[in-house]
Amino acid sequence: MVSIFAKQNSLVIKQTYNEGEDIASKSILWLDLLNPTIDEIAHISKIYDIEIPNKEEREEIESSARYWEDKDSITINTRFLIKLGEESLKDETITFLLCKNMLFTIRYSEFKIFDEIQQRVLASPRYFEDGFDLISKIFEVRVEKDADIIENFTRDIRELRKGVFENIYDYNEVLGYLSNLQDVNTRLRDSLFDKRRALTALLSSNKLDFDVKSSITTIVKDLNSLIDFCVANMNALDNIHALFASQINIEQNKIIKIFTVVTVAMMPPTLIGTIYGMNFTHMPELDFTYSYPIVLLVMIISTIIPIVYFKKKGWL
Q1: Containing H/E element for 175?
Q2: What is the enclosing helix (H) or strand (E) of 147?
Q3: What pLDDT, on the 0 to 100 scale, is given for residue 298?
Q4: What is the CA radius of gyration of the chain?
Q5: Mean per-residue pLDDT for 262-291?
Q6: What is the rounded CA–CA span in Å between residue 251 and residue 90?
Q7: Comparing C-alpha atoms, which of 63, 208, 89 is closest to residue 77?
Q8: Tens of pLDDT, residues 275-284
Q9: Rounded Cα gap, residues 97 and 117, in angstroms
Q10: Which is it for the CA torsion 219, 224, 228, 233, positive or negative?
Q11: Under 8 Å CB-to-CB from 256, ≥6 apart: which residues?
Q12: To the nearest whole percent, how much of the chain has pLDDT over 90?
């Protein structure tokens, strides 16, 4: 589907593109291509004499594939995050193409941010004179959303740290949760890096006016701040992992200590039982009437003495 946002007097009108429709004569502000067909891409490319990158080109990670500029146009491929439930994210590459003061966006997933921007454009058209104003506002809102995600993410890290110390979770649950948080943080950080790289390159363009450059400069500063938060969160997750590993080692040491104490405590009665289990003919103790209860008592006492000793030493 292709949504057309065209200027009409002091308003912006939203229309849906019909295949084969002649839109060259319209005063276009924004063409939003959501899941476009090959024919739609070919038709729009021909009308405006622009080159829209294909899927393989959109996903390449080289700097030259994420941002390039020629005499008439600027093309940006950057990752936006999509929330999948409460605790997972995925990234989707979106193409922004600026040509003749128009903005073309090519995307293959639904994003609430685009619905929000569309409503803003229709409600306050005077704030959007060209495509540069639009792309500035899109990145501004996207970075605000990323900041909200990071705030919630930081809260989850604090709760996990507290839960690890209070033994709220079992080991498998902690490892799964920790692994998921690390994946989310990595996706956040990579997405922020990608946006910063694109906007930093955009700032060097002479096609931007002063107001747009000022706005994008502020966005880049916000991105730097958010990246610092991501780095801090990654360090916090590493710290939780180290603490969790230490906690497991402590628990294992406690178990080993108990087994060691039990083994040492059982050695004297085992020795006594072994001695009196020998099949020698001449063992005078065997002729005593109370030999059996005496030996049992000695075995019990020899077991209790090491346990009492270990308790006094603080080993139990």
Answers
A1: helix 171-203
A2: helix 131-165
A3: 83
A4: 35
A5: 77
A6: 36
A7: 63
A8: 777 777 777 7
A9: 17
A10: positive
A11: none
A12: 3
| Per-residue pLDDT at 20 exceeds 70 | no
Q: Which of 24, 34, 28 is nearest to 4 (CA)?
A: 28
- Residue 301: enclosing H or E segment and its boundaries? helix 291-313
Please identify which residue in the block is written with the tokens 């649950």. Answer: 173
Instruction: Supply the mean pLDDT for the chain.
Output: 80
Length reported for the chain: 316
First and final CA of the chain: distance in angstroms?
A: 71
Question: Between vectors from CA 220 to CA 219 and to CA 224, what angle results, nearest 5°?
Answer: 120
Please, which contacts does 165-174 make with residues 24 or more away whose CB atoms are closer than 8 Å?
165/243, 171/248, 174/244
Look up residue 36 and give its two tokens: 């476009």
Nearest Cα residue to 306 out of 292, 316, 293 = 316
What pLDDT is stored for residue 60 in this prediction?
A: 72
Closest-CA residue to 103 (of 22, 204, 207, 19): 207
Looking up tokens 């009437």, which residue turns up? 289
Residue 17 DSSP code:
P
What are all long-range contacts of 143-149, with beta carbons under 8 Å and residues at least 24 apart? Answer: 143/195, 143/219, 143/222, 143/223, 143/226, 145/81, 145/113, 146/81, 146/188, 146/191, 146/192, 146/226, 147/222, 147/226, 149/81, 149/83, 149/89, 149/188
Q: Which domains does the chain have, with CATH numbers?
A: 2-248 (3.30.460.20), 252-313 (1.20.58)
Give the global pTM.
0.72
pLDDT band (50, 70, 90) for residue 83: confident
CA distance 73 to 96: 10
> What per-residue confidence (pLDDT) applies to 130?
82
Question: pLDDT tens-digit profile of 110-152?
Answer: 888 888 888 888 888 788 888 888 888 888 888 888 888 888 8
